[in-house]
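Fold this sequence, please.
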Amino acid sequence: MKLKSFQKKLLEKKVDGALLFFRDPNFFYFTQQNIDNSILLIPAKGKPLLFVNKLEDVNVSIKTIMYDDPYKDLRSTLKKLNLKILGINEFAMTVKQKRFISKTAKTVDIEKILRTLRETKTDEEIKNIQKACSITDNILSKIVKQFHFKTEKEVKDFIKIEAIKEGCELSFEPVVASGKGASIPHYSGNKAIKKGFMIIDMGVKYRGYCADITRTVYIGTPSDKELDLYNKILSIQKLAIKMVKPNQKISEIEAFVRKKLGSDDKYFTHSLGHGLGIDVHESPTVSIKSKKTLEKGMVITIEPGLYNQFGIRIEDDVLVTKKGYALLSKFSKALIIPKF
């Protein structure tokens, strides 16, 4: 990943090196592996070192130190390399880890540096997200074509089994919300499927990178008013996606969506989207409050919704390209009415 760019930032901040622990998403970012009980040391100058328990079987290109006592070996290495000021991600540390490092070196929180570094994706990261989207699209297609489900839980279970078949983890616990449940953006129920709009929000992880796609289906026969409302949201979502390009102020995209919603704006109760990568929600936030502009290589979601006595949400994963955007999620957005 962007190792040299990260080291350059450490030097600019006059930080001697950075320590990342195995549960930190940034540990995976630099190693591309999940290795239990491991610590990654990245000097501001020189090559990274990986401290790994002797019981682990690892195969990485990073120089590895197999330890019995991680803190003893780490303390010795820091002294040997004369690393006195260390960058840490306080958000992803235990109290014990923070206490040890504070006794060993002066610490500086570098969470913002790491967050910003991951905002734009490398070509390899984009390929992984694109593949995650493709697999997610395929699972959604199977759900619609084989719609025999009686409960929301059955749909969730189907998603989980299909993800396993693909050799993938889930990006998050799927949301399957029908009837009044669809009016709750983060609904977590497992009830019998009700007539009306039903939201399916899901995504898989491919090689550690997330997809996050939402489609709204209709159980039964929608009224003309319901069709018009759905198509209004779809039209607004498509227009918002067309605004995605480098140097576009993020706040202006959500402001546009809210203006188009008119009096229905009060029923759109969350931000328009978020960054996507190793974490399903990462920087930048796609919000009217954002002070950022889009940059080439960012991957974001665009997901307007309405939540009243019903729920409608349409979400796609979008790559910011050199001149505009590329849609990474491909599954149809026309209102789906499953046949039983």
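The radius of gyration is 23 Å. The chain has a mean pLDDT of 95.
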